[in-house]
Design a protein that fits this description.
Oligomer: single chain
Structural class: mainly beta
Radius of gyration: 12 Å
Largest sheet: 5 strands, mixed
Order of helices and strands: EEEEEEEEEE
Number of helices: 0
């Protein structure tokens, strides 16, 4: 896997290795999320040699299967919830 595809609110975004994908409320992010519970600079996706890495960089948490996470290697499809556990 080299390209990463992010789906948010039904809209798909594709990114190539070498890009840093910033996610958050601030309008200068590649993926802008208007939810006030999400940090301005909430998270980022970076290419880490042979895979994508998700990293929470904001004050609000990110959740995977209900558990708070800081770093997640992306090796296949993953469903992350920003600011509150999916429910």
């Amino acid at each position: 896997m080299t390209e990463v595809n992010v789906i948010f609110e039904g809209e798909g975004h594709s990114f190539q290795p070498g890009q840093t994908v910033r996610i958050g409320r601030s309008l200068d992010n590649e993926i802008v999320i208007s939810n006030p519970a999400v940090s301005r600079q909430h998270a980022q996706l970076t290419w880490a040699g042979d895979r994508w890495m998700f990293e929470n960089v904001g004050r609000a948490a990110t959740y995977l299967n209900g558990d708070s996470v800081v770093r997640v290697p992306i090796t296949g499809p993953v469903d992350l919830a920003l600011a509150a556990p999916a429910g």
